[in-house]
Amino acid sequence: MSSIPMLRQSRSLFLRGTSRVTDLHKRMMALCAYDDEYLKARFAGKVAICTASTSGIGYAAAERIAREGAKVVICSRRQEKVDAAVKKLRDQNLEVSGIVCHQAKKEDRQRLIDFTLRTYGGIDLLFASAGVSPFSGYMLLVTEKQWDKLFEVNVKSTFLIIRECVPHMAERGGGAIVSHSTTAGVFPEATRNLNMPYAVSKSAVIGLTKVLVEPLAQRNIRINCMAPGPIETSFLRRYIQQFVPGETGLPKQAYDENFMLRFGEPEECGSVVAFLLSEDASYMAGEIIPVCGGINLREMSKLL
């Protein structure tokens, strides 16, 4: 007989719990609606430059930032790619313009900055995304020409585009910058001689990011770094083909090192770039943010 009151009490608690869950769901839906409106205007009034941004991670970041309200200038080395990417983004009613720019060329960088100032009136945000990998193989086999190209594009031009944008950001009261490294730059020794020269250059980008924190902070500019792992891009496909001809999926070695057992998507990097450039990351500077399916955690565990 005592079980009947207990059942009634359990039913009452269940209904009360269900009501609470329903209320929580309503609040969460309202919060999501708020967040959706907030994200659409997170970069309202801001002007962003995204380099190497007509495909892959650069494009995904430019698209995300534009969707959140920024006026975005994209660029790459080929006019036809710039035209195609601008059209694709403008077809989404996004405020985007584009210009040809080889980030390693001084005159191209200046033309990019002048074009941005002329088109949108200033610079607030920068995603320095350009990078190359002209050599994949054992460290001691890289040629001097390949080594020079790695550091000219991946390190030197990254520093220079940042330095050249800083005065224009400072004129507008500050800004935010994201550099582009790689998980291999966090743990270059884990590349097992497959792509160490590239990893070393990207390690330098991490060091560059960290040493720029103080001088940029004095100008109210934050800088952080995104370090992606295996992301579904043509860049990664070309890299894989060099070692596993005909491979169309994730190589077994990558499965062994990746908790997620899949490639990442460029959009999963674009959202991180947008966050780091936004005021939501206002107390973050000099941070290296891996987007890599847990690879870096696996490698870190080996060092403990």
Summarize the structure.
The protein is of the alpha/beta class.
List the helices and strands and how they pair.
Layout: H1 3-40, E1 47-50, H2 56-67, E2 71-76, H3 79-90, E3 96-100, H4 106-120, E4 125-128, H5 144-171, E5 175-180, H6 183-186, H7 196-217, E6 221-228, H8 234-243, H9 252-257, H10 266-277, E7 288-291, H11 295-303
Parallel strand pairs: 1-2, 1-4, 2-3, 4-5, 5-6, 6-7
**Unreliable segments (pLDDT under 50, ≥5 consecutive)?**
1-8, 10-18
Give the strand order of the largest sheet, numbering strands 1, 2, ... along the chain.
Answer: 3-2-1-4-5-6-7
Tell me what portion of residues adopts beta-strand conformation. Answer: 5-15%
- Main β-sheet description: 7 strands, parallel
Along the chain, the helix and strand elements come as HEHEHEHEHEHHEHHHEH
Work out the oligomeric state of the chains in this entry: single chain
Intertermini distance:
59 Å
Rg: 23 Å
What is the share of helical residues? 55-70%
